[in-house]
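Thread: sanity check for a docking pose with 1,3-dihydroxyacetonephosphate

Original post by kr_44:
Hi all, I'm comparing my docking run against an independent structure prediction. Below are the sequence and the ligand SMILES. Could someone generate the full complex and paste the structure tokens? I mainly care about where the ligand ends up relative to the chain.
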Amino acid sequence: MEQILSSNSSDSPLRLALVAHDAKKADLVDWVRQNTSLLQGADLFATGTTGTKILDASPQLKLTCLKSGPLGGDQQLGAMICEGKLDALFFFIDPMSPMPHDVDIKALSRLAIVYDIPCAHSPSTANFVLKGLFSQRETGA
Ligand SMILES: O=C(CO)COP(=O)(O)O
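Reply from moderator J.T.:
Ran it for you. Here is the predicted complex with 1,3-dihydroxyacetonephosphate included:
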């Protein structure tokens, strides 16, 4: 957490959170691989298991692994949102399985809405959000 930037401006790297439930981890790892050229310009933060899998597949990325989701990683990301330390959340949720840390998942999703940061729950939405963020940077909009 010490590496987290306290503020962001258009010339500093985007700060992006990457999270996926077990059934969706392969989708997120694939999506990251497909978008490596954009993502390697960002500061990435991920819950523990998700981050480890992403780094196995894409070791060139600048990614900080937090705690595993069920052990508090979702809450760490929520705290970062509250503190203005994340620019977007890419959270591939498994809609078919009950989760022991459901309250943490809801809290993280809720804070993304409260603080109005862009949030994507699937690859197609993630494509729009990522391209939108980078084009906003380019145009200064
Ligand atoms: O459970 C998660 C998000 O709710 C993800 O946590 P892991 O990346 O540690 O599996």
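The helical segments are 25-34, 36-39, 48-57, 73-82, 102-114, 123-139. Hope that helps with the comparison, let us know if your pose agrees.
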